[in-house]
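Progress note, sequence design subtask.
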């Protein structure tokens, strides 16, 4: 007999990775568990996932399931670069601050990071590091990496994405999109997944899943013909070729083969909007960035944040500035939001008193 380890006190706003697995994904995993399937991606689930991905991203798209998001980013970027290549990214990019140097140490590439005010690159910001071609003393800037939605919860519009890809392509650079929260961005903008990626000229995509309700696994989606050949070998070289790939594919299929990606992202976005609206006008707390997807960034006294965190887990974003991040998930409830807002106002009242 086993003991349940469920801890209701862990419900909070630290990360959408804290959430459980969507029941429909669990059902898909159980169904995929029946019988035998060809290993290493030769299974029916991976084949069907390929058809679904093509329906979203176009006839030239190919999906390569991998175990996690860091591997997706590193492997995708490797496919765009020679050994002497470099990647221009925002200073706040996940690949720059949250992947323990994996792009540089494992991927063998140089990151050229650019400070931004809102987590978003522009052609002008890219130009700060897009120079020095032919100089053997400088890592060659041959790729741009952007995140949608960004690490600050902000969104690139379709016009902004097109401006970046057109500029990069004109410079001979290719563009990678970290789409860990791609679904949240698509829902917020009211566009399709392909419209926001293939339609704006993105070359390769890290397609998220764990932040939107699956248990494990992400996908690399090639959107142009260039990276496809190398990806087959890079995935294996990076230890990301799953023998029982059907269990990653079945989850991504449950998410993107139906409207589950849309309904789950719509819900988490709506919960963030509810939280953001509840914060506005509250004495002692202010929003740092506009709430455009499923993250809320706010500034409040550290003492209030520390006391609040004893009941609701969440992360400091910039403690020196008193900034915190609150993330909403597919399973965040209105009751969660309302309880959190009540506790927040209670702690702020104590500070004022």
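Output:
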């Amino acid at each position: 007999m086993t003991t349940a380890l469920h801890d209701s006190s862990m419900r909070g706003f630290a990360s959408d990775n804290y959430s459980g697995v969507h029941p429909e994904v669990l059902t898909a995993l159980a169904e995929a568990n029946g019988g035998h399937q060809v290993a290493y991606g030769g299974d029916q689930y991976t084949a069907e996932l390929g058809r679904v991905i093509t329906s979203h991203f176009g006839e030239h798209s190919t999906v390569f399931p991998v175990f996690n998001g860091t591997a997706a980013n590193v492997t995708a970027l490797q496919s765009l670069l020679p050994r002497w290549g470099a990647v221009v990214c925002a200073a706040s990019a996940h690949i720059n601050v949250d992947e323990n140097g994996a792009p540089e140490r494992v991927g063998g590439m140089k990151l050229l990071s650019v400070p931004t005010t809102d987590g978003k690159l522009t052609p002008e910001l890219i130009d700060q590091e897009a120079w020095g071609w032919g100089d053997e003393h400088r890592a060659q800037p041959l790729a741009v990496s952007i995140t949608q939605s960004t690490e600050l919860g902000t969104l690139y519009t379709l016009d902004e994405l097109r401006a970046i890809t057109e500029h990069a392509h004109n410079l001979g650079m290719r563009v990678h999109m970290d789409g860990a929260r791609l679904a949240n961005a698509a829902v917020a903008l009211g566009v399709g997944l392909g419209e926001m990626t293939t339609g704006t000229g993105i070359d390769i995509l890290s397609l998220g899943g764990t932040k939107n309700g699956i248990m494990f696994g992400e996908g690399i989606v090639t959107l142009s013909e260039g990276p496809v050949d190398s990806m087959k070998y890079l995935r294996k070289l990076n230890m990301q070729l799953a023998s029982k790939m059907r269990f990653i594919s079945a989850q991504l299929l449950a998410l993107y083969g139906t409207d589950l990606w849309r309904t789950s992202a719509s819900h988490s976005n709506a919960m963030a909007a509810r939280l953001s609206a509840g914060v506005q006008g509250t004495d002692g707390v202010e929003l740092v960035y506009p709430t455009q997807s499923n993250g809320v960034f706010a500034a409040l006294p550290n003492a209030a944040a520390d006391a609040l965190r004893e009941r609701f887990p969440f992360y400091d974003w910039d403690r020196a500035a008193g900034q915190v991040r609150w993330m909403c998930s597919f399973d965040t409830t209105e009751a969660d939001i309302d309880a959190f807002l009540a506790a927040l106002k209670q702690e702020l009242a104590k500070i004022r008193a």
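The longest strand covers residues 140-147. Work on this subtask will continue into the next period as scheduled.
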